[in-house]
Amino acid sequence: MFKKFEMELAGRTLRVDVDRVGKQANGAVLMHYGDTTVLSTATASEKPREGIDFFPLSVEYNERLYSVGKIPGGFNKREGKASENAVLTCRVIDRPMRPLFPKDYRNDVTLENLVMSVDQDCSPELTAMLGAAIATSISDIPFDGPTSTTQVGLVNNQFVFNPTAAEKEASDLSLTVASTKEKVIMIEAGANEVPEDQMIEAIYAAHDLNQKVIAFIEEIVAECGKEKHTYESCSIPEELFAAMKEIVTPAEMEEAVFTDEKQVREDNIRGITDKLEEAFADNEEWLDVLSEAIYQYQKKTVRKMIREDHKRPDGRRIDEIRPLAGEIDLIPRVHGSAMFTRGQTQICTITTLAPLAEAQRLDGLDQAETSKRYMHHYNFPSYSVGETRPSRGPGRREIGHGALAEKALLPVLPSEAEFPYAIRTVSETFESNGSTSQASVCASSMSLMAAGVPIKSAVAGISAGLVTGDTDDDYLVLTDIQGLEDFFGDMDFKVAGTHKGITAIQMDIKIHGLTRAIVEEAIRTTKKARTFILDEVMNKTIAEPREEVGEFAPKIIQMQIDPQKIGEVVGQRGKTINEIIERTGAKIDITDEGMVYISGIKKSDMEEAKKMITLIVTDFEAGQVLEGKVISIKDFGAFLEFAPGKEGMVHISKISKERIKHVEDVLTLGEVVKVVCLGKDKMGRISFSIKDVATEETPE
């Protein structure tokens, strides 16, 4: 018989079923939040993986379209590779949990989350985050949990917890906070320029709610939790550290790592590695763990010098930003380009504009969102860090960095009505030594302005780091961390925003959480740095968006038509609209509400297409003068085309003021003539006259 646990969470019932399914996993729970159902499991290998110096944790979030009553699109009616949303959810589950496993644990651990049913008012992502934490907590896998996660929205300036679909739509904030029993361990946010103080308040409102969920999880663990298994420790022998310090003194290690040139530092460490390998050539046991031991030696050296002596590897002050530079228009013929450089981190972002029809279509579990008009993609080639490896497409890190920059810039983009374009920005990493994701925010903001996208405000991003001591009060927050400080430090706290407020946050840490004092200092430190970047670099490179899109970007004309006339513009099987496109070369998109978007490179072609559509949807009235092309000649008159699919007739008696016997005596096929509308005949058809057009009239 399975065990069932329930609690009320943000006005809905959270139910956890233990020992109902997945009993062969180390830990498994069937999660129910409202009608959202997720199976979360935690499984570990019996023995450590050999030959590795890291904890092999794998997190999966498997979306099944049956959960929202859909069959996958395309030829293969089966779910394919993970969606972008699934990848981002895996990352947000991973980040708060990874630090809570033992640092010397080398057994493979997999956290699987299977989405089986989705209630749009109860987030499956949140349900999976809670499920992964509970499954691991009740398992026999060593884990210093539990953790809890809460989502926060801001509707009418009021916080809402685990918001419904309607509340998310109206919210100015999308915040996810994970906590342990004592501290905040993960923050992820997108916001419409939310002030720093309000963001801090939201974070700790979520932290307080997390404590109630953690108490609920502890009840489940107390009743169903397994005893944690012992494991083979992979810690480095103290004797090895002592022997290393005899050969390479702390002063020598400090000299090797404290340089602002990444390549020089790597060469120095390579020399130290060769020296130690030669010294320990006869000790295979030590050689097997020497790489990890050198890493630990570097880490202790860097952390000691930063925390105790306030000395950074490149000689900067604790709150000093590396040298900055901005540049626009470095790539010809693209719609917009900009490059942002911060120390040895360099990003170039290219902006591409297209008609709204090229917006990305989404086929996921969120039924409220079927497409997105702004796309940010981030690329991280191996040459940017001086390495060589084959390119296999974007990994989870690249997708995550792209999504973070996209989230940071979304709040300042113009609406579709203001700027009817699909927009894609691509950030190419030229060089990397710390926080390329935030450099891509800066480069993308300038690139959008250079492309003529009327963004509301420039957005900058910066990252803060952390080095902690033995107590909560013993810490140092660093501004603009480089790769080494990220690698050996305890935190990468990324914040993007405008002068007005925050637009995105992402926090990665390697310790068991942050105190409120650290969170507040990190947010205020990044505010100061962000303001400096905006004022001293970005605004001096390009202060405001260009008034028009570039020469090579498509131009777009908008016009509104009666929705009931859409069928006339489109024509049978698209015949009419395709003919307009073929004649003018313009691209035409029409919404169900009758909004028409005409795009092209040449304005004259777009105006011609607009003229044709106007003629098609116009109800001709008596006295209206226009031009038509003769497309058919009959004994009784001629048929004229005024626009694709829009025709009218001129009776033989209305062709000339002189009496004529044959229409062909006056008109020829293909001839363009002026006509005046006479109104409707007895059968309701519109008729025209050539002879009644005054010579001074000009066609409308």
UniProtKB/TrEMBL annotation:
Keyword Magnesium present in the record's keywords: the answer is: yes
Q: Which UniProt keywords apply?
A: Cytoplasm, Magnesium, Metal-binding, Nucleotidyltransferase, RNA-binding, Transferase
Q: Where in the cell is it found?
A: Cytoplasm
Residues engaged in binding Mg(2+): D486, D492
What SMART domains does UniProt report for this protein, alphabetically?
KH, S1
Report the EC code(s) recorded for this entry: 2.7.7.8
Cross-referenced Gene3D superfamilies: GHMP Kinase, N-terminal domain, K Homology domain, type 1, Nucleic acid-binding proteins
As its record notes, the protein acts as a catalyst of: RNA(n+1) + phosphate = RNA(n) + a ribonucleoside 5'-diphosphate
Give GO terms: molecular function aspect only.
polyribonucleotide nucleotidyltransferase activity
Domain (KIX): give its ranges: 223-302
Cofactor(s) for this UniProt protein: Mg(2+)
Q: Which residues form the S1 motif domain?
A: 623-691
Pfam annotation, one family:
S1
Q: Which domain of life is it from?
A: Bacteria
The similarity comment for this entry is: Belongs to the polyribonucleotide nucleotidyltransferase family.
The UniProt entry, under NCBIfam families, shows: polynuc_phos (TIGR03591), PRK11824.1 (NF008805)
Q: Relate the protein's function as given in its record.
A: Involved in mRNA degradation. Catalyzes the phosphorolysis of single-stranded polyribonucleotides processively in the 3'- to 5'-direction.
Q: What is this protein called?
A: Polyribonucleotide nucleotidyltransferase
The UniProt gene name for this protein comes to: pnp
